[in-house]
Amino acid sequence: MALASYAAGFSQRGSLGKWAIMALVCLLVLAVLGGLKYRQIKEAIAFGESFPERSEAVTAVLTSPESWPQTYRTIGEVRATKSIELRTEVGGKVAAIGFVGGSPVEEGQQLLLLDSTEERAQLQATRAQLKLAELQLERLRELRRNNLASQNEYDSAEADKDILLANAAALAAIIEKKSLVAPFDAQTGLHTLEVGQYLAANTVVTQLTGGLGEVWIDFKLPQGKAGLAIGDTVTLDSSSLGNEPMYATIISAESSLNTSSRSREFRALLREPPATVRPGAVVDVEVVVGSLDGVFRLPASAVRRNNFGAFVYVLNDAEPGAIAPFRASRRQVTVGPAQGEDILVTAGLEPGERVATIGAFKLIDGLLTHVVEREQNSGQAPAIAPQPGIEGQPGP
């Protein structure tokens, strides 16, 4: 019995020994494999460190503070300096038309003649009566000198003469009103008139537009921006004109604000307008309403954005021995309005700092950086000087 128990215990101890040996072998295998992997990783790190640190090439500008004008844009309406709607003062039948619709006319040129045959006949009869009245008055004057006519007869004859003179003047005025002439050199509007057509009084004949060598630009500014003075200059945007920007001078302004819109109306004079600026057109008007001091003007390519706002990469001097002269440092900035292809930075930069522009999208914080152009002050157009070599590696 005892022998059987001893044999069972020996068999159990042998089984445990086998498991211990197996565990030891596994540990040795793991240790060998771990050592090999560690050696491989160490060699890979050493191999990687044998390459130069990554770098990128960008263009850059040096920041320089500026005073930038604050502008306000609004819509202006083009008006002719001389413009009238020509209407008939009296009714009548059209006898003659002296202009072609849409053509230029000269001052004093007859544009429309209404039939005045009846008024001319009445005027001729009135003049004949006036001649007779003058003779009658002359006879009474002689008789009065000899006390052969009463003062009442003489006064009555003189009054008859004055009445006939007034009637003749009235008929002449009616005849004159039936002839419409151009009051100034102008461009006429279109019309649908025909000879023989009857026109009632106050009928529109045509629109006369003159003084096209200069035009008025009428526009309104809100209460807080209506500080312009006579003689100030406003800019007419080129996008509305189709050519280079033009400048108009303020010549007048309303003395008070409009009570419904709380705005003030201004009038500017534009000399020698292009053909695209015709009366009735609208143009974009830009006025200066203040200035931003100490701002930095950067190319739009320099400003990057993410969920936290706008930022730029400032290029600081790299440590001695680095393969590139600068390291990129990301800097949060506050941006203002865009000005064409530039963006105003109002906070976050200091004068004289070097900011990456073209190629800034390739940078990350701390990256070595080459500048591959002649550096310009902020706000100036960069003059790129190409250098040989692969991008990201210094040229010779």
Description:
This protein is of the alpha+beta class and 396 residues long. It contains four helices and 21 strands. β15 (304-306) and β16 (309-317) form a beta hairpin. The radius of gyration is 48 Å and the shape is rod-shaped.
What's the short version?
This protein has 396 residues and is an alpha+beta fold. Helices cover 27% and strands 38% of the residues. The strands form three sheets. It has a six-stranded antiparallel β-barrel with strand order 3-10-13-12-11-14. A four-stranded antiparallel sheet has the order 7-6-4-9.
Tags for this model:
single chain, 396 residues, alpha+beta, six-stranded antiparallel β-barrel, four-stranded antiparallel β-sheet, 21 strands, rod-shaped
Q: How far do the termini sit from each other?
A: 95 Å
Radius of gyration: 48 Å
How would you classify the helix and strand content by structural class? alpha+beta
Outline the low-pLDDT stretches: 381-396
Task: Detail the topology: elements first, then pairings.
Elements: H1 2-49, E1 55-58, E2 60-62, E3 66-87, E4 92-97, E5 104-105, E6 110-114, H2 117-145, H3 151-177, E7 179-181, E8 186-188, E9 198-199, E10 204-222, E11 233-236, H4 238-241, E12 246-253, E13 263-271, E14 282-299, E15 304-306, E16 309-317, E17 326-339, E18 342-347, E19 354-356, E20 368-371, E21 376-377
Parallel strand pairs: 1-20, 2-21
Antiparallel strand pairs: 2-19, 3-10, 3-14, 4-6, 4-9, 5-8, 6-7, 8-10, 10-13, 11-12, 11-14, 12-13, 14-18, 15-16, 16-17, 17-18, 17-20
Helix pairs in contact: 2-3
